[in-house]
Specification:
This protein has 452 residues and is an all-alpha fold. It has 2 domains: 375 residues, no CATH class; 65 residues, no CATH class. It is built from 18 helices and no strands. It is globular.
């Protein structure tokens, strides 16, 4: 689809997505608060789901009216007379899916959230491909996203297993106590994560946004494990603390393996990023290769930070996340604009990486202050980093020996890098070997020697 739309059209769609990411924060922040209360013993699950649905309806009406009123400004920026309607429909589709997913993560079915997202993405890609191929352009991208979200959202509500009920005043008051921190925290966090796209779209142009988004999409697998881990961690911490149970072991395990994909992806982007981008998206997106390594590093830091964010939310300290996010947002905005005019669009990426590092260090300080026995750099994480360094050295050497203008050679180098990373990890990491051995036994691929 990126090949059909080109950098300009592709950038326009993701510019709209970035705006929606800002607008949906009151709803997703409210849903996050509903999710938090759903994990507690004294809050009726049906009322928590009902509170979530009420938030979707109320804010959808507000965004539709607001977009219509601001339609001249939106059209001037995007260049499409129907942009206000596309923005509104995109908002409804996204909040319907994202808020229902937030509630699902608070239930025993939280592990299915990754499969739900994968199913949504399959429907989205098929719908977008069909609509874009029929000549609908950016509207086709929006339509495909909306259809996929609205198809999957009811399935998510079904998986939650709670019949929506009209919330009581006590439930709404309890949800608001958490939401009054989670909503502004979400706004600031989104401002930080999507500010790159907004700055580039407003100050440079949609084609640069297109290249940036291609690089960002290619680094998405780095957050796959983090998405699963973060989804269930906050709920488990909240539930165990409400019962007076220990939580540090769970946090430690998540920190150990949350970056297992992000680390090799960063080193791979560092050594063969541009050839991979050109092979996947064509030479029209060659400039995306410049952003790839920086954004992969950003994802690696964010994967670790995500566990700390969930930890602070789980122990009912969302105000600490808000404090950090507010400072980092202002810092990122200031540095991003300064570097944009100093060294060009890549300066925005540099500012984002530096800001994410500061956000991680600040949250690490708060978490360690509250949990002094927690090790933020567990041995498995260091072993993954060592394997990534070895992988980078090997792939760089192979790259020098092969002409990467030929796509099979690009695939070969990527494959070699993956083999080197996981082979070295098996060699040096006892916990990783134990995990693989257990998975193999569970799958029936090996025989257990345990005595009966």
């Amino acid at each position: 689809m990126a090949r059909i739309l080109g950098p300009e059209g592709y950038g326009t769609f993701y510019f709209l997505m970035a705006i929606v990411a800002f607008l949906d924060n009151p709803v997703t922040g409210w849903a996050n608060a509903c999710r938090k209360r759903l994990t507690e013993k004294d809050v009726p699950s049906g009322e928590a789901v009902g509170s979530t649905i009420a938030g979707i309806v109320i804010f959808s009406v507000i965004v539709f009216v607001g977009s219509w009123v601001a339609s001249p400004l939106i059209t001037a920026q995007v260049g499409n007379p129907d942009a206000w309607l596309l923005l509104s429909l995109l908002f409804v589709g996204m909040v319907s899916f994202l808020t229902s997913l937030e509630v699902l993560k608070a239930t025993e079915q939280f592990g299915s959230s990754s499969w739900v997202q994968a199913g949504r993405d399959v429907v989205r890609v098929l719908a977008q491909a069909a609509l874009v191929a029929s000549g609908m352009g950016v509207a086709g991208m929006v339509g495909g996203m909306v259809v996929a979200n609205l198809v999957v959202a009811p399935i998510v509500i079904y998986l939650v297993g709670a019949k929506p009920e009209i919330p009581s005043k006590d439930t709404l008051r309890s949800v608001w106590e958490f939401a009054k921190s989670s909503i502004p925290n979400g706004v600031v966090a989104t401002a930080q994560s999507r500010m790159d796209v907004i700055l580039l779209g407003l100050l440079v142009g949609q084609s640069v946004v297109g290249n940036y988004e291609v690089a960002l999409r290619m680094t998405m697998p780095a957050m796959y494990v983090a998405g699963i881990a973060q989804g269930g961690l906050m709920g488990r911490i909240s539930n165990r603390r409400s019962k007076g149970e220990e939580v540090i072991t769970d946090i430690q395990n998540n920190l150990s393996y949350v970056s297992i994909i992000a680390i090799p992806l960063f080193f791979g982007a560092l050594t063969v990023g541009r050839p991979v981008v050109v092979t996947a998206y064509s030479s029209k997106f060659a400039e995306a290769g410049v952003y790839l390594a920086g954004l992969a590093f950003f994802r690696a830091i964010r994967s670790q930070k995500s566990i700390l964010v969930s930890t602070l939310d789980g122990i009912d300290r969302p105000e600490l996340n808000l404090r950090v996010s507010t400072f980092v947002f202002v810092f990122n905005l200031t540095l991003g604009i300064g570097l944009l005019y100093t060294i060009g669009p890549f300066g925005v990426v540099v500012a984002t990486v530096v800001s994410e590092a500061i956000a991680y260090v600040a949250r690490a300080y708060f978490v360690r202050s509250l949990m002094p026995s927690l090790n933020l750099l567990p041995r498995p994480l260091l072993e993954q980093f060592a394997s990534g360094v070895l992988m980078a050295a090997v792939t760089y050497a192979v790259r020098l020996a092969l002409p990467l203008s030929f796509w099979p050679y690009v695939a070969l180098v990527v494959g070699i890098g993956g083999v080197v990373y996981f082979s070295s990890l098996l060699l040096i990491s006892e916990p990783f070997r134990t995990t693989i051995r257990a998975l193999a036994e569970d799958a029936g691929l090996t025989n257990s020697n345990k005595a009966s």
